[in-house]
Amino acid sequence: MNEHDSERIGGLLAADGMAPSTSIEAADVIVLNTCTIRENADNKLYGYLGSLRAIKMERPDLKILVGGCTAQKDGDLLMEKAGWVDVVFGTHNVNRVVELMDHADEWGPVTEILEETSSFDDFPSYLPARRQTPHSAWVTIAIGCDNSCTFCIVPAVRGKEISRRFGDIIGEVKALASEGVSEVTLLGQNVNSYGRDLDINGRSPVFADLLRQVGSIDGIRRIRYTSPHPKDFKEDVAEAMAETQAVCEQLHLPLQSGSDRILAAMHRGYNAERFLSRLEMARRTIPNLSVSTDIIVGFPGETEEDFQATLDVVAQARFDQAFTFQYSPRPGTVAATLDGQIEKAVVQERFERLVALQNMISHESNQAMVGRSEEVLVEGPSKKDPGVVTARTRGNRPVHARGEYEPGTYLTMEITEAASHYLLGTVVS
Ligand code: 5AD
Ligand code: SF4
Predict the structure, then answer these.
(1) Is the pLDDT score of 120 beyond 80?
(2) Looking at residues 40-60, what average pLDDT do you find?
(3) Which ligand is nearest to the CA of 257?
(4) Which one, 36, 43, 414, 418, has the greatest CB density within 10 A?
């Protein structure tokens, strides 16, 4: 969501006549679009702003803008900590970036933070985007979150959940397809609750309807989405995935913890057994499904036994990939006030055990791909070697192979080797 907002900010600046700069030193305007999901994201911002201070002293005309979730959370405090910033704007007024910059130019530093997105028309989706890739695009389907996971700052900074109008989403995907986009990733904090607040002829559209409709748009060959909430992930969505050719066989289902006690304290609305049965249903319904997850280690009160339960669920679930995080207390969340905050060294040690287990499983899962023939979508040359191309399978696994191909090309590759986090292949056609 944050990266997509950055594309919108880039799009607005480009529409105002600006062009991307090749270096910080040459830039007239620097925009930092921040994340505050964990504390080290905040720390990074303030560290980076510190390093920009000297440049601003030398070139007072340089404009420094800070947007995103840390800006939303810190507001005026941000200017107090870094007085050389020109504009602070929040998550609900991305559309105002150019006006705020002009305002700062004329009148001096300005902070504008809104409490909520006031109308459909303020959705960043209506703003021009400057996409990194011509063939692949994000599409916002809902903003905000109505859940109350006790560790999470998102509801505080992104506000209540608002679904985007069904027809507007379809319209945007059609427009993207006509520009040559063949892969879309639908974005929402909790995609399964899409549509609850909408009404089409007396009925609320549901996420499964959206998958089917987007899947019927000419030119769209790959659909991904993030993220579903395990408590709301039901058969109808799995069936829509299975029946809609363009929807990739990929699911990101965030577990967070395998301990029922911790899941309850996190307010997640499911237990380990329910999670595993939903996962089993998804795999049964969607052949060749790749599954990724998010896991937090060291939530307040987590005992060795609770952590062991997480390892057990990870071993049973056999995720193809996991994003693992050390718990970070966020100001204003319930979990930050709980007793039993866990010592850093203990969290670190558990974290390493979890990563080791998951790496083994990811490696085995990738190993099982060897010998298979896969449709891949080219992303571009590999960062390390321009003679090697990086592509992605429908299951979202990165594959590297010899050859030079345009980003956006579909190829068939035979998978020849596997590591924990990538595959190697050869191009067949
Ligand atoms: N500490 C650690 N990880 C967190 N996440 C969200 N909030 C926190 C936090 N306070 C993780 C969750 C979520 C992912 C996007 O970030 O696992 O799914
Ligand atoms: Fe945060 Fe939970 Fe909402 Fe996800 S569902 S954004 S973890 S509160």
Answers:
(1) no
(2) 94
(3) 1
(4) 36
Instruction: Kindly report whether the global pTM for this prediction surpasses the value 0.85.
Output: yes
Distance between CA atoms of residues 271 and 265, nearest Å: 11
Per-residue model confidence (pLDDT) at position 121? 63
Q: Ligand 2, from 150, 189, 268: best to mutate by most atoms within 8 Å of Cβ?
A: 189
Specify the residue with its C-alpha closest to ligand 1, atom 14: 294
Q: Can you give the pLDDT at residue 127?
A: 75
Q: How far apart are CA 228 and CA 281, in angstroms?
A: 14
- Amino acid in position 77: L
Asked whether 152 lines ligand 2 (CB < 6 A), one says yes
User: Could you give the CA distance from residue 142 to residue 158 in angstroms, rounded to a whole number?
Assistant: 11
Tally of structural domains, the chain: 4
Q: Are residues 283 and 352 in the same domain?
A: yes
Pocket test for ligand 2, best of 36, 149, 252, 268 (most atoms within 8 A of CB): 149
Ligand nearest to the CA of 295: 1
Residue 235 sits in the same domain as residue 270: no
Sign, Cα dihedral of 213, 214, 220, 226: negative
Mean pLDDT, the chain, integer: 95
Distance 252 CA to ligand 2 centre (A): 14
Domain identity same for 17 and 41: yes
Ligand 1: which of 296, 321, 344, 348 to mutate, judged by most atoms within 8 Å of the beta carbon? 296
**Residue 142 belongs to some domain of the structure:** yes
Domain that holds residue 44: 2-112
141 and 34 in one domain? Answer: no
Instruction: Residue 16: give its domain's CATH number.
Output: 3.40.50
Say yes or no to pLDDT of 125 above 80.
no
**Do the domain assignments include residue 277?**
yes
329 backbone φψ class: left, alpha, beta (φ>0; ψ -120 to 50)? beta
Structure confidence at residue 118 (pLDDT): 65
Give the angle 297-300-303 at the CA atoms, nearest 5°. 70
CATH number at residue 145: 3.30.750.210
Measured between alpha carbons, how far is 361 from 27 in angstroms, rounded to an integer?
45
pLDDT of residue 131: 87
Ligand nearest to the CA of 252: 1
The number of the ligand 2 atom at minimal distance from the alpha carbon of 189 is 6
Q: Is the pLDDT of residue 48 over 70?
A: yes
